[in-house]
Known about the structure:
Blueprint: H1 3-49, H2 59-128
Helix pairs in contact: 1-2
Amino acid sequence: MGASAKQLARVNRVRTVQLSLARAAQAQAEAHAASESALNSRIAQLAAAIAPAPVAGAGFSLSAAAHYRDRLHQSAHLAASRVEAAEQRAVAASDAAQAAERDLKAVEKLQSRADADAALAAIRAMEGAPMPVRRLRHDPC
């Protein structure tokens, strides 16, 4: 195994680890985005559940419900921005995973070319080698 073959093997190992880390980061970012989306939908459900209902003599409770509903809308706005940021991180992680996979494939192609070149060089060396002399054996009959 030549120096360049060893170097390519090492680069291949490094790129494989990088691809694994990128895929793990992608999965983590997608899980985080799903979690933020679930939180956003839960906040929306809570805000819908606090809709004002006609009740006689419930001024204080309407005021408290309005305050609670306002806080839920603020939380929903913040949750929507967090969902958007999480989705952007998931897209960035996906792009990083694709780039790592592309790099790994490039290294694998380089390795296969190096192996093919080594095999071709060995074949040429065998073609250029002198033919072995065939000894004639004369056994006593």
